[in-house]
Amino acid sequence: MAQFFRFETSVLLRGETLEAVSSNRQTILLVEDDPSGIAIANEACELCDPPIRLVVVEDSVEALAWLSHNIEAKNPMPGLILLDLKLPKLSGLAVLRRLRMDASTWDMPIIVFSEVCEQADVLLSYQIGANSFVSKPADINQFHELLRDLTSYWLLPRQRKLALSTQ
User: Fold this and answer.
1) Residue 148 neighbours by CB under 8 Å, 6+ apart
2) Residue 2 domain-assigned (yes or no)
């Protein structure tokens, strides 16, 4: 069985077993090609409470392959995709477009992020179907704050149900 992801991170809370965390932890798919951005995300994820499983893929083709594999294998899908706008091979917008056209991923929360937030990129991201567009966090604290905000809004079951009912 091929594995398409580079690494994943989860943090156990005091008194929790790995099995308990695996059964209820949230998964975020990070599509990021910058090694320093990946390192910041990994360290920020370790600060999260409740724990987050971070799956990292380094380019758009790898992201689509990982998602396709999970769909075919009927594996759980990530609760959220954090998608870099500027990626090698296919742009983040091309990935977003493909995911919004696929019946298995059309309703998945996708957050586009970029170091440069040009108005045209932001508008096009929303037109294609991004749930949000955010500035790429510059350090661990900013990334931790972003993860906290995204998980509390998108990954809490009640919030997601409300968001999907308005789309």
Assistant:
1) 48
2) no
